């Protein structure tokens, strides 16, 4: 009995310590994650700060009345790099901050590229944001900025195509209210392709946003 037990213990392979197995498991996970990271770097060598559209798709239609009172369509700006933002003139914080940030980004670009970068504000408040007021508002932030007025129900359809949601909030009267809305800024390249979208929390980082714009302009 004792001899059989001794023989069995001799013939059985020694067990690996638990920590040894865990080490190999962690190493395998690290190698896997490293491979994923390397693949992502190969597929997109530039580390964009924002969310990248992949694959690239044509920007949705954007048609209305420009801040100059003339018909506006996004395709009129083909050949330029355009940052599209949906907001409203009575916005107390997000909208003015976004437009001011986009102008700082434009100023941070090389001088030769500044004329080819343009910000566009699409108003989500056609009931109050009349075209003359829209022009006064956008040009306050930049002489090159554009404004777009779209009446309802076309505005609802346009916003949905861009993935923008909005609704009235804090309604006190027919003329006194706020609008809750999507705060993304959509970057469109010179060929009319959607490239990236920045969140409101990102748009104030001038250097990183400008780096994204320069890369898209290349």
UniProtKB/TrEMBL annotation:
Binding site for Cu cation: 91, 95, 181
One GO molecular-function entry: metal ion binding
Domain Thioredoxin: 53-218
Pfam family, one: SCO1-SenC
Annotated S-S bridges: 91-95
Keywords, ordered alphabetically: Copper, Disulfide bond, Metal-binding
Gene3D superfamilies xref list: Glutaredoxin (3.40.30.10)
CDD domains: SCO
PANTHER family: ELECTRON TRANSPORT PROTIN SCO1/SENC FAMILY MEMBER, LINALOOL DEHYDRATASE_ISOMERASE DOMAIN-CONTAINING PROTEIN
Family in the record: Belongs to the SCO1/2 family.
Name this polypeptide is given: SCO family protein
Source organism of this protein record: Deinococcus terrestris
């Amino acid at each position: 009995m004792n001899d059989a037990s001794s023989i069995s213990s001799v013939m059985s392979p020694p067990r690996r310590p638990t920590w040894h197995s865990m080490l190999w498991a962690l190493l395998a996970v690290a190698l896997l994650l490293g491979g994923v990271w390397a693949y992502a770097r190969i597929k997109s060598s530039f580390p964009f700060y924002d969310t990248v559209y992949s694959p690239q798709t044509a920007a949705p239609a954007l048609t209305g009345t420009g801040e100059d009172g003339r018909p506006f369509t996004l395709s009129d700006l083909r050949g330029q790099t355009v940052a599209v933002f949906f907001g409203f003139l009575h916005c107390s914080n997000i909208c003015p901050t976004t437009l001011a940030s986009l102008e700082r980004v434009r100023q941070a670009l090389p001088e030769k590229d500044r004329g080819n970068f343009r910000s566009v504000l699409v108003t989500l408040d056609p009931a109050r944001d009349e075209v003359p007021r829209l022009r006064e508002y956008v040009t306050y932030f930049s002489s090159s900025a554009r404004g777009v007025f779209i009446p309802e129900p076309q505005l609802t359809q346009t916003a949905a195509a861009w993935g923008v949601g909005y609704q009235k909030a804090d309604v006190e009267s027919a003329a006194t209210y706020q609008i809750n809305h999507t705060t993304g800024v959509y970057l469109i390249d010179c060929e009319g392709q959607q490239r990236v979208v920045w969140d409101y929390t990102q748009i104030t980082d001038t250097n990183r946003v400008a780096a994204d714009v320069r890369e898209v302009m290349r």
